[in-house]
Design goal:
heterodimer; A: 260 residues; 80% helix; B: 429 residues; alpha+beta; 5-stranded antiparallel β-sheet; 13 helices; 10 strands; globular
Chain lengths: 260, 429
Amino acid sequence: MNATFAIAGATFGEAVRKRILMVILLIALLIILISPAFEPFAAGRGARTLIISFGFGVIQLAGTFIAIIMCTGMIPTEIERRTIYTILSKPVQRYQFVLGKFFGAVGTLGFMYLMMGIVFLIASRMALGSFDPAIIRGLLMFFFQSSLLAAVVLFFSTFVSPLVNYFLSGGVFLMGNLLSSFLETIQRNPEVTPLTRIPVQLLTVILPNFANFNVQNPIINPEQVLTDETAYLVQTLAYAVVYIALLLVASMLIFNQREM
Amino acid sequence: MKRNYSKLWIAIVALLLIQAGLQFRIFPLWVRNYAPKQATPVGLAPEQLLVAVAGFREFMAAILWVRADGFFDSGNYDAVLPMLRLVTWLDPHNLDVYSTGAWHMGYNFTDESQRSDRRYIPMALKFLEEGIQNNPTVWDLYFEMGWMYYHKIQDPVNAAPWMQIANEYPDMIPARRHMLAHSFFKAGRFDDAVDHWAKLFLDAEKDRGKDWEANNTYDVRQNNLEDTILDLLRRYGPNPETQPPIDLGFDATVKVVRPRVLLVEGKLGIPTIGARVTVILRDKGKTLEYSPSALKTFTFEVDPRLTYMQDSLAVREEKFRREIDMSKDPKMYPFKAEEYEVEFIFEPRYASPNIQARIGSDGVGMYDARYLETVREKPAPVNVPEYAKVSDALRSALQNPTRETSYNRVRKVITLTRADILMLGQRGE
């Protein structure tokens, strides 16, 4: 376990030193900070919608970019630089290496989300005049979304090149965001045949569902009364943990079999 | 080594099944609480769709809503409609969009003489119904639906059920609760109106002295309760002021003065000022169904072949007269049917209080030898959404309405042909 955490710490240190990730973080922080400037565009309730949705949008987008950029090169770069041989020649198992890399990535994401979250809370407090604790719930869900995406990218990085990984992970993220809406549309349309519906249902169950983590709508529209909200949040977090575990086990399986 | 791999495979299958099970449980809750509610994002440009998918759904909706406001300010009303569709797809819980959008459809499409295009009203009701389905746990849109019936359609019988639902929500704005009593009264449910005022008054008494607003609410409710009881006593009690009935001597004529221009005039024997006669011109045998269920699915397209004009004519010195020009709005008045009915109606439910004092709000104090008729009504069943926060008793009562009320009105119908209105063959079109 020490080896896992040592690798996680090294990965975290390496990630926060990466200029590209810091640039993304700084741009996101800057944009969130100036989001109160949108207030004059829509008075009253509209201002809340603009500022909160914009803040969440920026955070989600930054989290997505950070997760993809950080994780695509994690394993291929180690192989390319041949540093992996030095690591694996020590008493470190391959699964520990994969786990360490993932925990390092999650730690980095956590740090980034903490920074963006604090700035977002300050900006929304400035613009709306009150602190809304529901924002923290939204941030937590997006953090889990990014962590799941990081696991997807890490999984792909065990067997594809970084360039392919960018597109592959981006595609999975896009599909994972759209599939639920698509399935819901299909289910409501009586004219859709089972031949179309069943493959979509299967895909929705197999692919990671990133739309589950987008809970910003009720935060923006607080007058909504949700049904079984706690159950939803708990199940979604459990879903993230289980799916991340699934991807990590699959990553270990592939990485273990990989010739180096 | 091989054994380890098989363990990993087993773990993968097990985790895959667990996540699938979780996803099966999450999906219905996601649909109920978080899903965009329109079938397809028709009209979103690819880059807008991408922006929406990238987590900026509500932001995109807010920007589009601001844009729609710009179209509204510049008078480009047609452009607002597709915007409404997009915004509600992106953010189905934005109540302002539903209430403002329905108001826009119900009130703002007018002809050159500021007469509403009433073909849009079923659309407004359908839009509100969609909003209610998407937001069943808040009172606002039930109230908006009730208000559309009460004010725009002037149908208090069907306004009351929606107001009743809104009144079940404890967070409803106090002043808006009054509308239920007004609806009951206009619908002829006098006992329910008094009961509701009494209930509101007792509620206000609890908060009396708390602040200026609470005191004001108390005063308003006390006055309304007293006025309602006094009005009922004066109109329907011993020696009622509504008796004997006054003879309205109602009559109306219509003359085509130019193609698509009608001169309507007539008489109504109401001795005081403030009476209004409604005139409706429509395709013969066709009427607008003011109900959310009139449209199967939501659409922004009105029937381009249907002609429907409604106006309200002021009565002065027991006479009314107006030239109704429909020649400048061929899209609103296409005149495609062969025959038309011009309907003149005077009904007391929305008459001014001084008139109601004499004839009653249900017309018991009016008489007409030729055109008097009694209208009996009960509200249409309301399909209360599953998650609406209403009692089972009210839900059942609204789904199976039994209470019937009646009122008197005078009504005259004149039939015209297309050739008459377009003055075909007489230097007309």
